[in-house]
Every structure is written in structure tokens, then in C-alpha cells.
Design a protein that fits this description.
With about 280 residues, this protein is of the alpha+beta class. It has nine helices and twelve strands. This is DUF4081 domain-containing protein.
């Protein structure tokens, strides 16, 4: 008779097993590992819950502001989906390994309704060797007093990439606070010209072993000059200086960005998918 296991919420006693599981593929797990290493496994501090079905080594899913399935059999994916479906939806997206995300979305779509956007194939890239492109020497960490200059570029990038204004219904206070936190942590990088941002990127998640770059953007008037590759190289060099592997994921249809990342030295190590919810 086939033995089955119910979904279990992980707690402090599972910390060692969770960290060991996350370390198996630090590029894939960077978003979740960064949270766990900073806040532990306790759901209240983590602002989300870590779930497993059976053993942590075999299945793991984070459910919080994002829903991130990291490993598991088809049976585990169905069990995770059943678990989150029973509660009011709190996540704004599903993101992670493409096979798991798309399988989970097929289970949830009937309950949650149509997504705002589904991106089923996003190459996951990592820079595991030396940079192949010279970093832009003018790209540097943004300083806190530059927040008001940096913020419009962050809004423009988010709106262009995701299709909605990130400032939401609170006049932009929450988004401003999020960007300020990135700046305070040295994770927002930019090149300024004549008091305007012409290149920007952020290190969205930083774990002990990897740093995930996000929000790469070049001002429309500066595109086609190589700023994307040189700027990304500068940010990647910053990640490497901290002893971490730089990584990012990119839409498969964004040919210019993929070409720029290849010039920097990034290679594909997996495939992510993202489901953006309303």
C-alpha cells in the first residue's frame, strides 16, 4: 500500500534540515534562503510559512507574499496546492522552477481565477566564472540622499516590466519604503548622468551563497549604447566581491537582455516561471 504524508508546516526544530536543503542549489533557492537566513524558520518572523510533505530533503515550498515551490513530486505539488487553496490568497505571484510553478498553477487556477500574466519560460542564469565584460566604473551603490532621484527610475522599470504602477493605492508610500530599504542595504545600484538615472539594477535577494539581480533597466534615451551589459557587470562584480554567485532570471522573449547577459558571462543553469496575480 502506498504510504502518503500530509503537508506539514516547518518550525525552528527543522532549521538545520531546511538550510541543508536550500544549500543544495543556492541559485534556485536564493529568494527563500535569504529570508530563512535572515529571519529563521518561525512563520511569524519569516512572514510566511515553509511547507513540506514527508521529508524536507524531498519537498519544500514557501508560502508568503510570493508562493515559491522549490522541490517536490507531483503528489507534493498537489498537496501544497490543496493547503494554500483552503486559505484566502495572500500571495501576489507564483515564482520558481518552471515545472513546479506551472504544475501548481494548473491546480490553483480554477479557484484563484485568471492570472494577470503567465511567463512559463524564464531562463535562470548564473555567473560562475570570471566576468567577460568590463564593469561600468560609473555604476555604484545608490546613497540614501539620492532616493528621490532614483525612485522614478525604479517606478518606470517596474511599470515597464510588470505592466502596473507599483505605487498602488497608498500614494506610493509602501513602494518608497521598499526602495529605501534596498538603498539602505547597499542593494540598489545606478549610474547617474546630469542628475538622472540612466542605468539601474538591484540585488533583490542576498543569501550566504548567492545574490539575485533584478530590476535591470536602462533609460530609453540611453539604450543601444551597451549600458545594460556594462552596468550588469558592475553589479555582478559587487555580488562576487561578497563571495557570492550572481544570478538572475530573464523573460525568454527579451532577446536584447539575454544577449547582454551572455556578454557579461552569465550562463543558463535552469528555467523559472512566474505567474503574476491580480
Amino acid at each position: 500500500m502506498l504510504k502518503t504524508h500530509s503537508v506539514r508546516q516547518l518550525g525552528a526544530r527543522d532549521t538545520t534540515a531546511v538550510l541543508r536543503a536550500l544549500d543544495r542549489d543556492p541559485v534556485v533557492s536564493c529568494m527563500v534562503a535569504a529570508r530563512v537566513q535572515a529571519h529563521g524558520v518561525d512563520p511569524n518572523r519569516l512572514q510566511g510559512e515553509l511547507l513540506t510533505q514527508g521529508r524536507v530533503e524531498d519537498s519544500l515550498c514557501f508560502s508568503g507574499v510570493n508562493l515559491v515551490p522549490l522541490s517536490g513530486s507531483p503528489q507534493a505539488v498537489r498537496a501544497f496546492s490543496d493547503r494554500v487553496r483552503r486559505r484566502p490568497r495572500s500571495c501576489s505571484s507564483l515564482v520558481g522552477p518552471a515545472d513546479l510553478v506551472m504544475a501548481m498553477w494548473s491546480e490553483l487556477e480554477g479557484t484563484w481565477g485568471a492570472a494577470r500574466d503567465v511567463r512559463p519560460e524564464q531562463p535562470l542564469l548564473a555567473l560562475t566564472g570570471a566576468l567577460r565584460h568590463a564593469p561600468d566604473p560609473l555604476v555604484r551603490p545608490v546613497q540614501m540622499h539620492e532616493l528621490d532621484v532614483y525612485l522614478p527610475a525604479a517606478v518606470a522599470m517596474f511599470t515597464e516590466e510588470v505592466g502596473v504602477d507599483p505605487r498602488g493605492s497608498d500614494g506610493g508610500r509602501s513602494y518608497r519604503h521598499r526602495v529605501a530599504d534596498l538603498i539602505a542595504g547597499g542593494r540598489a545600484w545606478a549610474r547617474f548622468e546630469h542628475g538622472e538615472v540612466v542605468f539601474k539594477a538591484e540585488i533583490g535577494s542576498v543569501s550566504a551563497l548567492a545574490g539575485q539581480i533584478q530590476g535591470v533597466w536602462v533609460h530609453p534615451e540611453w539604450r543601444g549604447r551597451g549600458l545594460g551589459a556594462a552596468g550588469t557587470a558592475a553589479v555582478a562584480a559587487g555580488v562576487q566581491a561578497g563571495g557570492r554567485v550572481p544570478s538572475l532570471y530573464v523573460n525568454d522573449f527579451n532577446a536584447p537582455a539575454r544577449a547582454a547577459y551572455r556578454r557579461v558571462g552569465f550562463t543558463q543553469v535552469g528555467t523559472f516561471a512566474t505567474v503574476l496575480l491580480h
